[in-house]
Amino acid sequence: MGIAQIIVGILMIIASIIIIAVVLLQQGRRSGVGAISGGIDTFLSKNKARDWDSRLARMTKYIAIAFFVLAVIANIFALAAK
Length: 82
Hints:
Strand content: under 5%
Largest sheet: none
Structural class: mainly alpha
Helix content: over 70%
């Protein structure tokens, strides 16, 4: 196992932990739906939530792409080691 394989493995572990955290931070799509939502949301709080959720969604996409690229690189290294 070379140093490059170890680095890619560590980066994959870090990316997987980050993607799990980002997905868990996202709100469900059905939050606040219904006749009784439990409170009155102001216009600013709704837009702030959308902005935060859109950032988390973008982060999820980029981290997932990075994770899959790292998986392909790790596979290339594994095939080259044979």
